[in-house]
Here is the input.
Amino acid sequence: MTTPTRLVILTGAGISAESGLRTFRAADGLWEQHRVQDVATPEAFHRDPALVHRFYNERRRSLASVQPNAAHLALARLEREWRGDLLLVTQNVDDLHDRAGSGNLLHMHGELLKGRCLACGTIQAWPGDMDTASRCPACGRGPMRPHIVWFGELPLEMERIYRALERCDLFVAIGTSGLVYPAAGFVAATAPGTRTLELNLESSLVASSFQEARTGLATNLVPAFVSEVLSG
Ligand code: BJW
Here is the structure.
């Protein structure tokens, strides 16, 4: 491959699957056990905040027993060792990229380990359980919600992401089904001539929009891709 200089990488639930975190849409995935409209919309939180808190408390707890895998570690290595410009955008709300050592990282769908005050809007670290009695440590007033982007809400850092997509010369999507927008449309937001590559266990719904698609496990494909970029 010709040597890229500006790289944007998008990751989805597939990169964390081999660490032991369930994806959303697999047969045993999170949406098999919970209806999206019951746990991942602002309306659901308004209707039954205790149920939504239980869903996210369980997922927050599950982070304690998982570790970054070879794919997360390879992307952190790329950031450390590569001289080009790298922006890592993740749809994942887990902290596995952070723990692997990625720094130039945007969590576009929020973070499980943070909470947001419904009164003052302050976002803060929230490592433990949250419930309807939880109060904001900053203002002392507001009830808290998980710092998660639900359906119908605006994903985070969109300006920075679209700016990077327009300027990059290589865009790579890893372990995402291509079902959820705006992330599924990122490949189409790159400039004409940008090289685009999908790495996934199965072809995504938008695989035909990529110039190249490689299928396999993230823990195999991602370290191999990183070695390719680092060897120029
Ligand atoms: C492996 C692997 C291994 C497995 N190795 N690979 C009608 C048409 C178009 C759009 C809309 C519409 N109606 C509504 C919308 C918009 C809506 C949307 O997209 N809906 C669609 C479902 C139709 N989107 C929104 O509402 C978003 N906001 C929005 O659009 O605002 C307006 C806007 C306008 C203009 C600009 C910008 C914005 C918000 C979306 C919020 C998504 N939230 C969730 C849940 C919250 C977080 C949480 O609880 O964790 O985010 S939904 C869920 O899906 C989660 C994920 O981040 C997201 C994507 O899922 P992902 O990562 O792709 O996982 P899976 O399970 O789908 O796929 C796993 C993949 O991994 C598979 O491909 C496997 O093959 C692969 N894999 N093992 C490699 N070992």
About this structure: The CA atoms of residues 118 and 142 lie 5 Å apart.
